[in-house]
Amino acid sequence: MPDAFFPLLDRLMRRTAIVVAVVLLALFPASLRPAQATEVQGVYQLAAARESTPVRAVGEKFSTTDFYVRTRGGAVTISGTRDGRGEFWVDDMLDLSITRFDGTTVTRHFDDSAGCTSDTVLPSAPVNLGADLQNGINLVRVTFRDTCGGNSGNTAIYLTGAARCETVAPLPSLPKLDAGTFVIANYLSGSPAASIGCTTGFNLQSQVSGRRYSTFAKHCVNGKQGDGKDNSTIAAHQPMHVNTIDQRFGWASGLDCSPGAGKCLLPPADTKQNGDFVAWPVDRATPTNMVATKNGRLLPVLGTKRWQDVGNQQICHYGMGSAGKGAAERCGAALTEAEKFVTCLRAIDCSGGLVPEPMFGDDGDSGGPVYVYNARRTGVYAVGLELQAQGTQGTQGSLIIPIQTVLTRLGDGKPLVLVTAS
Predict the structure, then answer these.
(1) What does the alpha-carbon distance between residue 200 and residue 176 come to, in Å, rounded to a whole number?
(2) Among the CATH numbers 2.60.120, 3.40.50, 1.25.40, 3.10.310, which is that of 34-167?
(3) Cα separation of 71 and 83, whole Å?
């Protein structure tokens, strides 16, 4: 293979991109816009009153609700009456998490049990949340939960003030999610707010919990910030909605892939390994053992192959960006180990465990499935995930991360396993 096959770029082009900056006054795509919007110049009811009833288990979480507060400054008071002046109580705990427009987070906790030391519920006085909110749009997550056992309940709770509150109607979900699906990640925080187009990779399953996950590139969740070797840039862009590219259906709503949130599986920080991949849970849909291939044909995933074992065979990937350039599936003759060594030595930076392969790639392909066909082309073997494009002037290649690396580094105590047809 010619040494010039992979010309050295001044910079590597990250693939997830199709970043769509959103104008502030239209921060959320039309299909994500709230189903109802209420001016808080009057009153916005945060929660209806609940009668006191026994809890089922100590620590039970009763409800979690997300909504947006758009403000230009001024007082916004949480209270138990419509005029913003009355006390309120919660048995036992009300948590408020406010993600502000710049991505910073403020939390408040209303504990009306005094740390489980009180024999009765202690009412909370009205609180002005104005200092916790920034001009613009703020995402507020409200959680009611038990801490002490016994009973649960609350008074009606209202927000009153110079702001506008909007609730989000969840999008319907499709029943199944295949590898090679084109999706949009809509960030609900961070600056600037954005949507990023991505391609889903192979679906994986935990050997510990049995839960299934989809995959895509980590720069789908961190706004293309950082180098992928740690997880420090994720939280500023969370939570997010993951939708179909036409924004008509949702795969995940309010998903928080931040470290410690316990939702997504992230690779541990390692300055010597590329960790630009993530496994994320899917709302209401089932991640399948199928993958999109040429002309959108779905084929079963039969297992895995090491990149070292597929040299000179046809290797392919499937991606959104390539689809926009004429064909979603792009293929080439897989490099042998010797060719890979020479290519990485003379042409490009393959550090961190990346493997070069001669497949065209473009923005939006990142995270997509990389595979080889079986002999009859009735199924495929997973080889890796597409991460970066490389090349200029008609000579194009890709950098992939091996599937074995993904399964091992995303493991939750044990390596993950591929969702396959077997």
Answers:
(1) 13
(2) 2.60.120
(3) 19
